Amino acid sequence: MRFILVPGAGGQAWDWHRLVPLLGDAVAVQLPAGDDTAGLGEYADAIVAAAGTDPGPVVVVGHSMGGLSAPLVCDRLDVRRLVLLNAMIPAPGESGGQWWEGSGHSRVDIGKLDEAERYFHDLPPTLRAEALVRPEPEQSETPFAEPWPLASWPEVETQVLAGAEDRLFPVDFQRRLARERLGLEVQVVPGGHMAALSRPEELAAALLN
Hints:
Elements: E1 2-6, E2 26-28, H1 40-51, E3 58-63, H2 66-69, E4 79-85, H3 96-102, H4 115-119, H5 125-133, H6 142-145, E5 157-163, H7 171-182, E6 186-189, H8 195-198, H9 200-208
Parallel strand pairs: 1-2, 1-3, 3-4, 4-5, 5-6
């Protein structure tokens, strides 16, 4: 089973580089995040292209903003499981920009944290330093302005993973949102928002179980 790993805002395949070797057959998607002409449709195209020619059955993992684009490929690939990792769960017709208010998420508290404390607080020191010196990824507002295009959630097995130490989307928030929008319970895994970087072994175990 091939794992297709869809990053969040900024679209960096690098976010998955510690997890990929642990999954056996996995590919990390690089999204056209800095392209103002690219919307959710183009993000879906990039995911399908990254999967390769005739990839067979796949598991698609959407992280953070990847929750908006990962479900869009379920009618184009043989998706056996859709995994949401600390992800935005959209409602039909809701744009990514509207999601914050529609989901009941308050950005006030997270605004008090700098980037390091919000995303990288639980990374090993060397990796945290590497993450902080990397150029800040660009993220166009185009995909946030578009209504989420599906009429309903895809009819595929869906797994919701929530990082126990996520400061951007706290576990209680993710638990409520998953219940309200998908009727699902979350599986709590170790790590913060960037769990694929901070706790790849534990995340791999949850994905392969």
